[in-house]
UniProtKB/TrEMBL annotation:
The keyword Cytoplasm applies. Residues 149-239 form the DUF7912 domain. HAMAP family: RimP (MF_01077). The keyword Cytoplasm applies. It holds the Pfam family DUF7912. It comes from Ambrosia artemisiifolia (Common ragweed). This is Ribosome maturation factor RimP N-terminal domain-containing protein. InterPro entries: DUF7912 (IPR057234), Ribosome_maturation_RimP (IPR003728), RimP_N (IPR028989), RimP_N_sf (IPR035956).
C-alpha cells in the first residue's frame, strides 16, 4: 500500500457561509481583498510567513498581540507542537502553519491542527472580549505542506536524509556576477561554523531519467558534488519523488 502525506488545513470562522458570500460579492476592483491572496501561487521563500516558514506581520495594531498569544498556545503543548509559519493580513486574518516537533517529518495530524486551532481560538476570543484585538479576526491553521521549505541551517540535521529541491547561486570567474542553478540534490554534509553545505545528486526519478529511461544514475552523476555557502541558497525545500 502506498501512503501519501497531504497538506491539511482547518479553517475557523464564526461567520455563516451565506454572510461570507454576501461580503465577498460586495468587493469591487478597488478593494484589497485579492491582494492578500496573491502570494498563494507565488514560489515560497524563506521567512515569508507562509510556505517558506517564519513570521510575517502586516503592520496592524493587533498583529504583535495575536503573535504573542499564538506563541503562548504553542508552549502549552509541552514541546510537541511548534509554529512553522505565522502571518497576519490586512483583511483581519491570521494564518498559522504548525509542525509536530516529535516526529522526523514534522507533519502534524488533523487532531494536532484541530487541538491547536481550538486552543488558539479560545485565547483569541478572550482577547476580543477584553478589547485588545478586533472582534472580526478569522483564523486558518494548517500544516507546513508536503514540500515544505527547509530552514537553513536549523532544519538541515532533521531533513538530511530527504531529497531536496535546491536553488542556489554560484560566482562567475570574475566574481562580479553570479549564476543561478537548481536541481534535486541530497545533502552530503554541512558545517555550521563555516556556514556551508556539500551536495550530491539525489537518486530520484527526475535525475535518473537524465541518464536514460530505466537506467540508474550514471558515474558522472554519482560523483558530482558542489559546496554552497548558506547565503548562496535561494530556496531549499523537501522534494516529493512520486
Amino acid at each position: 500500500m502506498n501512503c501519501f502525506e497531504f497538506d491539511i488545513k482547518l479553517y475557523c470562522s464564526y461567520d455563516k457561509l451565506d454572510v461570507f458570500i454576501e461580503e465577498f460579492e460586495s468587493f469591487d476592483e478597488d478593494d484589497d481583498f485579492q491582494d492578500d491572496y496573491l502570494d498563494e501561487d507565488a514560489e515560497p521563500r524563506f521567512g515569508d510567513g507562509g510556505g517558506g516558514g517564519g513570521i510575517s506581520l502586516a503592520g496592524t495594531a493587533w498583529d504583535k498581540e495575536v503573535l504573542t498569544i499564538a506563541e503562548e498556545v504553542s508552549l502549552s503543548f509541552d514541546g510537541e507542537l511548534g509554529i512553522y509559519a505565522f502571518k497576519t493580513l490586512q483583511n483581519s486574518a491570521i494564518r498559522v502553519r504548525i509542525e509536530r516537533l516529535t516526529n522526523k517529518s514534522g507533519s502534524p495530524t488533523m487532531e494536532d491542527i484541530e487541538a491547536f486551532s481550538n486552543a488558539y481560538r479560545e485565547r483569541l476570543n478572550q482577547a476580543e472580549a477584553a478589547g485588545s484585538i478586533p472582534v472580526d479576526i478569522s483564523l486558518e491553521v494548517s500544516s507546513p505542506g508536503l514540500e515544505r521549505v527547509v530552514r537553513i541551517p536549523q532544519d538541515l540535521e532533521r531533513f538530511k536524509d530527504r531529497p531536496m529541491y535546491v536553488k542556489y547561486t554560484t560566482r562567475e570567474d570574475d566574481a562580479s556576477s553570479s549564476c543561478e542553478h537548481d536541481g534535486v540534490l541530497r545533502l552530503e554534509s554541512f558545517d555550521l561554523e563555516a556556514e556551508r553545505c556539500t551536495w550530491g545528486i539525489a537518486d530520484v526519478k527526475v535525475n535518473r531519467e537524465k541518464a536514460g529511461k530505466g537506467r540508474p544514475l550514471n558515474k558522472k552523476q554519482r560523483e558530482w558534488r558542489i559546496t554552497t555557502p548558506f547565503d548562496s541558497l535561494l530556496l531549499v525545500r523537501i522534494y516529493a519523488d512520486f
